[in-house]
Structures are given as structure tokens and as C-alpha cells.
From TrEMBL:
Domain named ABC transporter: residues: 4-234
The organism's place on the tree of life at top rank: Bacteria
Family matches, as Pfam families: ABC_tran
Presence of the UniProt keyword Hydrolase in the record: no
Family under the similarity heading: Belongs to the ABC transporter superfamily.
Species whose genome carries this gene: Nonomuraea fuscirosea
InterPro entries given in the database record: AAA+_ATPase (IPR003593), ABC_transporter-like_ATP-bd (IPR003439), P-loop_NTPase (IPR027417)
Protein name: ABC-2 type transport system ATP-binding protein
Gene3D superfamilies given in the database record: P-loop containing nucleotide triphosphate hydrolases
Sample GO molecular function, one term: ATP hydrolysis activity
Keywords: ATP-binding, Nucleotide-binding, Transport
């Protein structure tokens, strides 16, 4: 079953083709849409919501055609836009109750629904304060709440971690995973950071200049580009030389060595090398992928 599907989807602006012959399908669960700034992620989401007409090709969301059924799609889909768009002088409660009423709920049900949704996204007492006084993290939560308030089947989250500090990012990612897992709402979430999406997604789509670069389940993804990061107190160069001599693919990133994992023997090689050299191992951690890894990988396959 697909929650959305595009076929040769294209969007041309006067000076740039933002979405270029994109054919892709998305199933239920949490799907990451990854691409550098300007890759076409926001444009794709606006087309899928029926807010921008495509220049060519077609797309269906929840089996509804985006050109003919935009209003029906927006009734079933929640949207968290990338940029700040909240009125500063109302409280989160007032705003979310307003959105709930706009979705058709009567006054009392709208209040209850708004309270539930604000609790789910983690806004407590501060929900009575004007939005203009909120931190970026709190504003992102309000934007998420308005995307959820009409009980959608699917939500589009455009760069929900933008502007957040590392802790805020972690909390937002955990929240998104919960929405997918506990509430059974399918999620399409964009980011320019592949590393953060692979933690919470079942499936990842990578686009570049509006074109599909890769679409695969997260398991296949990590298998192909898996790395492990190694930190030792001193002797990093010796360790690198030892591993390379033993046939491992190694690169250096500041105080870390990044070793490409080809199988369990890669971990054995790191263990043996640190033991033989008598080094103190500080950290051994699964590497976070970057979009560049996918590009490198695609080039290697050509
Ligand atoms: N309304 C528009 N008119 C003209 N060009 C546009 C318009 N909207 C987007 N573009 C261009 O289309 C390309 C894709 O933009 P888009 O915003 O979809 O990318 P993105 O992947 O979401 O990146 P970002 O996260 O930086 O917004 C960019 O080159 C952008 O300048």
C-alpha cells in the first residue's frame, strides 16, 4: 500500500527546475526526505498538498490526485511548514483551539483536542503565554501541534529540527518517532542531515537538484554506508596505519578515525589493532551518515 506516489513529477520555475522527473512511492511509517538546501524538498511537499501546481507528471496522496483533490488532501494531511509562521500575540492554546475549530470541531471538543495535542508535543504551562515569547524549540512544537490537531492520517514535516540545539533536535526526533509508532500516523519528514533522519525513519528518499538519487529501506541504507567512529586517547596515526595495513578503509575526521564496516571482521580488526598497539580506546560508535556518503556511494556504483 502506498500513502503517496509520484510519476515523472516536474516543477519548473523561470530559472530553475526544482523537481525534475521524480518517480517515487512512499509506504506507511516514517519516511525521511533528504537533500541539500535547494534540492526541492519544500517544493515537492507544496505540490503534494495541492498548494503548487506541477509543470508535468502526476502525484497522488492517499490515493487522491494532487491537482484535482488538493482540498481533500489537506483535510487528511497535516503540514508543518519550514519557516516561522506563528502569530506572536496569541497563546499556543488559543491558536491550536482556533485550528481545531477550523477543522470542524465544536467549541468544547476543540478545547479538549487542543489540550491533548499540546500535551503530546510537550507544551505544559507555557501554552498560556503568547507565542512571541517562546524559544525556537517551543515554536517548533506549536507548529507540530497545529499539524496534528485535525487528526490527520499523514503529516508532512518540513525541516522540523531547523534552528534547534542538539538536545532540542533529539527531543524533536524522539517526538516524531513516537507520532509514527504510537499514534499510527504516517510521517514524511525532511532534513538536509541524513544522519539525524536515519535514527527515526523506516525508509529514506534522497533527492538532489529535484532528481531522485536513492530510495530505500533504512536497513539497506545503513548496510551500504555503515561506518564506525573510533577515538583513542593518543596514537591515532599509528592506529590508522595499522588498520590500513590490515586492509581496512579508514579516513580521519579531527580526533576520530572513521572505519568503513565491511562485516564483523572490521570490529575485530579495530579491537586487535588497539590491543596490539596498547592504546586506550575512548569511543567506538556507529558512524552518522552524511548526504555526501550517498553521493560517493552512487558514484562508486556507476
Ligand atoms: N516560488 C519560487 N519561485 C522561484 N524559484 C523557487 C520558488 N520556490 C523554490 N524555488 C527554487 O527551487 C529550488 C528548490 O527549492 P526548495 O525550497 O524546494 O528546496 P529545499 O530542498 O526545500 O531547500 P530549503 O530547505 O533550503 O528550502 C531552489 O533553487 C529555489 O530557489
Amino acid at each position: 500500500m502506498h500513502i503517496l506516489a509520484t510519476e515523472g513529477l516536474t516543477k519548473r520555475f523561470p530559472t530553475v527546475t526544482a523537481v525534475d522527473q521524480l518517480t517515487v512511492t512512499v509506504g506507511p511509517g516514517v519516511t525521511g526526505l533528504v537533500g541539500a538546501n535547494g534540492a526541492g524538498k519544500s517544493t515537492l511537499i507544496k505540490i503534494l498538498l495541492g498548494l503548487l501546481p506541477p509543470s508535468g507528471g502526476s502525484a497522488r496522496v492517499l490515493d487522491l490526485d494532487v491537482t484535482a483533490r488538493g482540498a481533500d488532501i489537506r483535510r487528511l494531511v497535516g503540514y508543518m511548514p519550514e519557516h516561522e509562521c506563528l502569530p506572536p500575540d496569541v497563546s499556543a492554546t488559543e491558536l491550536i483551539v482556533h485550528f481545531a475549530r477550523m477543522s470542524g470541531l465544536p467549541r468544547t471538543a476543540a478545547r479538549e483536542r487542543a489540550a491533548d495535542v499540546l500535551r503530546h508535543v510537550g507544551l505544559a504551562e507555557e501554552r498560556y503565554r503568547p507565542v512571541g515569547t517562546y524559544s525556537t524549540g517551543m515554536k517548533q512544537r506549536v507548529k507540530l501541534a497545529q499539524a496534528l490537531v485535525h487528526d490527520p492520517k499523514l503529516i508532512f514535516l518540513d525541516e522540523p529540527t531547523n534552528g534547534l540545539d542538539p538536545r532540542g533536535r533529539d527531543e524533536m526526533l524522539t517526538l516524531i518517532r513516537r507520532i509514527g509508532a504510537e499514534f499510527g500516523i504516517s510521517v514524511l519528514v525532511t532534513s538536509h542531515l541524513l544522519g539525524e533522519l536515519e535514527r527515526i525513519c523506516d525508509h529514506v528518499i534522497v533527492i538532489d537538484a529535484g532528481r531522485l538519487l536513492r530510495s530505500s529501506a533504512i536497513g539497506e541504507f545503513t548496510q551500504v554506508t555503515q561506518t564506525v567512529e573510533v577515538e583513542v586517547d593518543e596514537g591515532l596515526d599509528d592506529l590508522a596505519a595499522h588498520l590500513v595495513a590490515g586492509g581496512q578503509a579508514v579516513s580521519r575526521q579531527g580526533r576520530l578515525l572513521v572505519v568503513k564496516v565491511t562485516g564483523p571482521e572490521s570490529y575485530d580488526a579495530i579491537r586487535d589493532a588497539t590491543a596490539e598497539l596498547g592504546l586506550c580506546l575512548i569511543r567506538l560508535e556507529q558512524g552518522r551518515h552524511r548526504i555526501e556518503d550517498v553521493f560517493r556511494d552512487e558514484v562508486a556504483h556507476v
